[in-house]
Amino acid sequence: MMGEGIPGLAQAYQALFVVALAVLAVLLILCLVRAVIGPRIADRVVAVNMMGTMVMVIIGILTVMLQEGYLADICLIYAMISFLAVVVLTKVYLGVYQQKKREEENGHDDDH
Q1: Which has the closest alpha carbon to 96: 58, 45, 46?
Q2: What is the DSSP letter of 38?
Q3: If both were cysteines, with which of 26, 63, 66, 82 could 52 make a disulfide (CB 3.0 to 4.6 Å apart)?
Q4: How far apart are alpha carbons 17 and 109 in whole angstroms?
Q5: Could you tell me which of 110, 89, 95 has the C-alpha nearest to residue 46?
Q6: What is the rounded CA–CA span in Å between residue 34 and residue 37?
Q7: How far, in Å, are 39, 49, 52, 68 from residue 74 at the CA level?
């Protein structure tokens, strides 16, 4: 356990971890609000990416706090899934953006 040699250090680490988890939980909720209200698609994608990063930090803190090594493996798997999700969201957004742009160009050509 961390801080076994110094009295009271383990409790200080525990308190630090709890405070960090509480702050991250509040930030996670704020990112969720940003992801829902937008206003732009880019804001939503960045918020989802940030939420994934914060969840990885939370899992990392829990790995140290609970001394469970398998949580680090789960964190790595979550990182890969989060990365792929952001790449897919970006690809879908770019496809929708390019389609709208083509429709606008075709619409303006019909008017002239």
Answers
A1: 45
A2: -
A3: 82
A4: 60
A5: 89
A6: 5
A7: 32, 17, 13, 11
Here the tokens at position 89 are 């969201």
Closest to 3 measured CA to CA, from 67, 72, 59: 67
Among residues 52, 49, 57, which one has the least CA distance to residue 23? 57
Q: Is the pTM of this model over 0.70?
A: yes
Nearest-angstrom CA–CA distance, 63 and 69: 6
Q: Mean pLDDT, to the nearest integer, of 107-112?
A: 61
Tokens of 99: 């389609």
Q: Are 37 and 44 in contact (CB under 8 A)?
A: no
Q: Which residue has the tokens 């990885």?
A: 56
Q: Are 62 and 71 in contact (CB under 8 A)?
A: yes
Which pLDDT tens digit goes with each residue over 44-83? 889 999 999 999 999 999 999 999 999 999 999 999 999 9
57: amino acid identity, one letter: V
